[in-house]
Amino acid sequence: MSNEKKNYTPQELNSMSNDELARLGTELDGVTVAYRKERFPVDNDPASKRASRAVGTFLVLSIIGAIGFLGVYLFWPWRYKGLGADGMWLYTFYTPLLGVCGALAIGCLGLAVVTYVKKIVPEEISVQRRHDGPSDEVDRRTITALLNDSWTTSTLGRRKVLAGMLGASGILAGLAIILPMGGMIRNPWKPGVLGLQGDGTLWTSGWTLKSKNVKLYLGRDTGAIAALEKGDKDHPNAVTHASTAGIARLVRMRPEDLDAGSMETVFPLPDELVNDKDRHDPKRDVYTEHMHSIHGPRNAVMLIRLRHKDAQEVVERKGQEDFHYGDFYAYSKICTHIGCPTSLYEAQTNRILCPCHQSQFDAKMYGKPLFGPAARALPQLPIEVDEEGYLVAKGDFIEPVGPAFWERES
User: Fold this and answer.
1) What is the pTM of this model?
2) Which residue from 66, 127, 224, 360 lies 20 to 30 Å from 293 (Cα-Cα)?
3) Whole domain around residue 237: which residue ranges?
4) Which residues pair with residue 360 across a beta bridge?
5) Subcellular localization, per the record (predicted)?
């Protein structure tokens, strides 16, 4: 325990200098400064300038990295570009640039702090005796003096340029850490523009376009890829570019295109994006829009054609008795457990299987779950055949697709 007087009056404390208050504070706290050595006791020491330049270099690199990160995050093209598409190389460098700039901003800031402490802040060894209970008035008054003393002995106060750079680097590096988190926070109920992937809310998909009186065909994925165009007469075998003109990734389906006891994955194909059969235009390019439909997170639908005998045994869900067309039933391919694709259909038992957690659904009983963790039936898409004999959506899903259990009432 320190034997130092503790009952100082406010007048006595006010009369003390900062150094005296700092010394008093260490004594009252039971702190003994066993060793302290200035790094640069001589003014204008060249070693001091070298240390400052080293710290400044790290801070400049940190600021450059942070500004680069913010610039890339805000302005660099980030939307997906496929092979051969314009801007693919810029898109390819988006994530690596974020990583490099972020590492530069945070890493160099850390190196600057470590370098400053190791090379500029005085060496000191202090020992403190611990005590219990709250601090008294004298301790509270002297703690500010101790902090001021720490600031003074660090010499950062008279290194204005380094102090400013350290503050700027800390702020920018903090923004580089915090800003990307904004992309993780969004309002799931805020709608955007309704398109082939819905309007951004949890309850919409490409099939929701039907609510806007858009004619939607059940589009079969052909798996077609871009055609490689050859070079000119001087280089006949050289590939110059890839073209998707005239290529239809999604095509319309007729009932006879699907055998009994089989399943086909289909996606929403708006009437304005049809480019197959009698409406094929070799110069028209709808490939990108078709891929947007295929990549829609809630667009995939299983079109199942039951055997006619099995179709006679189907149990319809109340309110959905007219959702099917003959022996054809369309169920969402998104598992109601955690959203995996229910991509397996067992024709012998008419069961739909999810390979992720082995949930099983009965295609003959409105997609009702029979086994596994899924507790809700697969949403059913109402379908029909148009005047030309093509399978089309008769309406949108009447319940949320996938594991959006917070949207469901049952």
Assistant:
1) 0.61
2) 360
3) 206-407
4) 353, 371
5) Cell membrane
